[in-house]
Amino acid sequence: MVDHLTLVTAERGLARCRARELAAALAELGFERRPGRDDEAFGSTRVEAGAAKRQLLARGFEDREFRIVLEYVRQWGVL
User: Fold this and answer.
1) Would the pLDDT of 77 be above 90?
2) In CATH, what number is assigned to the domain containing residue 29?
3) Three-state SS at 7
């Protein structure tokens, strides 16, 4: 069985207030905060990447304000 992990991060240089708005929107969508090395990421195993993008665009965010990474994970290791 293969699961997925959708990770969303704010683009570098995004204004702090806009990054906070993005974080709030992601929390409302069911994403959990995942501290990263340099950036703060938000992850979800329930929301797929395409759905996350559509919902963020519908909330007024632009493509250039965030980055989405989709990882596939097998139950016994990374694919």
Assistant:
1) no
2) 3.30.70.980
3) strand
